[in-house]
Amino acid sequence: xxxxxxxxxxxxxxxxxxxxxxxxxxxxxxxxxxxxxxxxxxxxxxxxxxxxxxxxxxxxxxxxxxxxxxxxxxxxxxxxxxxxxxxxxxxxxxxxxxxxxxxxxxxxxxxxxxxxxxxxxxxxxxxxxxxxxxxxxxxxxxxxxxxxxxxxxxxxxxxxxxxxxxxxxxxxxxxxxxxxxxxxxxxxxxxxxxxxxxxxxxxxxxxxxxxxxxxxxxxxxxxxxxxxxxxxxxxxxxxxxxxxxxxxxxxxxxxxxxxxxxxxxxxxxxxxxxxxxxxxxxxxxxxxxxxx
Length: 292
Prior knowledge:
Elements: H1 15-25, H2 39-62, H3 75-90, H4 93-103, E1 107-109, H5 115-121, H6 125-137, E2 153-156, E3 159-162, H7 176-187, H8 212-228, H9 232-245, H10 255-267, H11 271-278
Helix pairs in contact: 1-2, 2-5, 2-6, 3-4, 5-6, 7-8, 8-9, 8-10, 8-11, 9-10, 10-11
């Protein structure tokens, strides 16, 4: 009876193959197995190789091209003006200044002057790759991979990256600054900006995980309704207009649900609170420890 041969382990991935995989897909090995040293040493070496290759690829793809110039505007003031109605509608007066002070610093426009620093500074490899695609798309350049997303805005924790293409969008119900800032509310803890936390109130806003994109899209659309409609009848008409033409490619979001939320918001004295209520976590039933 012959002996069964030992199982041959997978070959150790080479650094070149890991870099190639990352550039095409945005995926990286969380253990950094291709690199040598302790885990921390491997992580640092992988970061240098992967992000360095990403920067070089971005520069190659955009060489000789130019993105749309940013308007001569104060981006801090622009951000504050865009998000102030939303903040005033969602937070009590005593908290609004602290929230606005944080948000007005959270938006970063991607430019040729800052992209290298931004790509090296992203917390996650996947985020850096997605940001790289957002950036090259603003030049009309080829994306890094066939499955790469074509985006104008992207959020990571409390930072919102926005493409210069933002200023070319003439859709009155589209505002990527509002959309991306809406994600900051569920990514930022109250204590981070000096607000009091409680056992049940740790984040700026409690939003159901599955409803986060729905919340952002509803806020984005309602911002257009709120700014353009000065009277209730005008806001309702604008909400109906949005509902007739709503197009959302995000698979996790039901366009009909977003239109319904925006319509309900337009009918209310404070539409922002309506959006929050429609996207809040469902209360869990209290545990019953008693007998039958």
